[in-house]
Design brief:
The structure is a single chain. This protein has about 350 residues and is α/β, with parallel strands linked by helices. The chain has a single domain, classed as 3-Layer(aba) Sandwich (Rossmann fold). Helix content is about 35%, strand content about 15%. The chain is built from 11 helices and 10 strands. The strands form 2 sheets. An 8-stranded mixed sheet has the order 1-2-4-3-5-6-7-8, with helices on both faces. It has a two-stranded antiparallel sheet with strand order 9-10. Helix 5 packs across helix 6. The longest helix is centred in the first third of the chain and has 21 residues. The chain is globular. The chain starts with 7 loop residues before the first helix and ends with a strand. Bound molecules: 2-acetamido-2-deoxy-beta-D-glucopyranose (NAG) (3 copies). One 2-acetamido-2-deoxy-beta-D-glucopyranose (NAG) binds next to loops.
């Protein structure tokens, strides 16, 4: 066969590497949502959703209808005394790409019991018992629906709202704070990425020249620049094997917020177990305390008057609350919760 029998572009395409990347490209294009969103992992995640009552917390389960008519599930876990609830911060918990909201209850329990916060959780569309199928646009609608619900809530609507997100949940949190600059008093993100595109070369090196095929759209690197006044806490596991820790550092450096910016890294934290590292919850507690004092002027007088009644206080014991290890899937439902003195 003469050398020039095939056009060179075709021979390239059919060469072993070319074929592999063409096939990889097609796979990437078609299945990228399935690679990112893992609502059926671990097994049972679409049918079994642990309840706050199993962790000794009172709650309402609310079914929210999104503007595109999807019914998503949420837990509202307020402080029991209405006055206490009104003076407490409300943390909206945006979970990562696997499991459902129930798998994160041990962490919510710390926020609720130790920090006396109100906690609000949701299972995104297609997760847990929520209807629908996950996709970028849908998760954005879900986070907005959750926020709107909290703001309209007779008690929680009067509180300071803080977004908290791990991994993919960090991207959801950055996005919703960027779009609602006046709604949030704080943002706490952990082990999240600059963008899905920038993750691909790290997760699937073979496809690094094909990231332009990726239409998943969580552009946190640019969204975080739109956050100009909200205080942000960056929680970074230095041993994160999934999202390179450099992504978190770059988000920190990119952030232009005039609000407080706190960087906290955990030497031994991996992607899923950063929350069990020593100092994790104290970092959150200190951030919540700072936010309580860092309010726009009109709110300050009122806060001074209610400060005495706020439960979160500098006198609280320092503690590391959660110990034990994640299960093979990295789900926190298997964590043992215990209190130890930090010193
Ligand atoms: C990606 O493209 C560069 C040059 O553009 C090339 O050197 C490299 O081998 C390609 N990598 C892969 C995995 O195809
Ligand atoms: C990290 O792990 C090493 C080895 O187990 C240990 O010696 C070190 O104290 C740990 N560091 C922190 C901050 O927990
Ligand atoms: C962390 O969780 C993800 C799923 O969210 C899983 O793919 C990964 O294997 C887990 N990593 C570890 C170290 O448990």
């Amino acid at each position: 066969m003469p050398d020039n029998y095939m056009p060179s572009w075709l021979s390239y395409t059919l060469s072993a590497t070319g074929l592999a990347s063409a096939a990889g490209g097609v796979m990437l294009y078609l299945y990228q949502s399935d690679l990112l969103y893992l609502p059926s992992h671990p097994d049972g995640s679409r049918t079994q959703v642990p309840k706050p009552s199993e962790f000794g917390m009172p709650y309402q389960e609310e079914i929210l209808t999104t503007k595109d008519n999807v019914k998503i599930r949420s837990y509202i876990i307020p402080q029991q005394d209405e006055k206490a609830a009104m003076n407490a911060p409300t943390i909206i918990y945006f979970h990562a790409n696997a499991g459902n909201m129930g798998h994160r209850l041990p962490i919510s329990k710390v926020f609720w019991e130790k920090f006396k916060a109100n906690v609000v959780m949701l299972s995104y569309r297609g997760y847990g018992l929520s209807e629908g199928t996950p996709n970028d646009k849908g998760l954005r609608i879900d986070s907005q629906t959750m926020l709107d619900h909290v703001r309209a809530h007779p008690v929680l609507g009067k509180t300071k709202i803080i977004a908290y997100g791990q991994s993919l949940g960090g991207a959801v949190a950055i996005d919703v704070v960027a779009r609602n600059p006046d709604a949030f008093s704080g943002l706490m993100i952990e082990n999240t990425f600059l963008s899905v595109n920038k993750m691909i070369p790290h997760v699937i090196p073979m496809l690094k020249n094909l990231t332009w095929l990726c239409h998943l759209n969580w552009p946190s690197e640019s969204s975080i620049r739109q956050i100009v006044k909200t205080p942000i806490l960056f929680l970074s596991g230095k041993k994160d094997e999934l999202v390179p820790p450099a992504h978190m550092r770059a988000l920190y450096e990119t952030s232009q917020t005039r609000g407080l910016k706190v960087w906290k890294e955990f030497e031994n934290g991996t992607h899923n177990d950063t929350c069990i590292q020593s100092g994790y919850f104290s970092a959150i507690r200190d951030f919540l305390l700072e936010i309580r004092d860092d309010m726009p002027e009109p709110a300050k007088e009122e806060a001074a008057a209610t400060k005495e009644k706020t439960h979160l206080s500098e006198q609280d014991e320092r503690f590391q609350l959660v110990s034990g290890v994640a299960d093979a899937d990295g789900m926190t439902h298997s964590f043992r919760v215990e209190e130890v003195d930090e010193d």
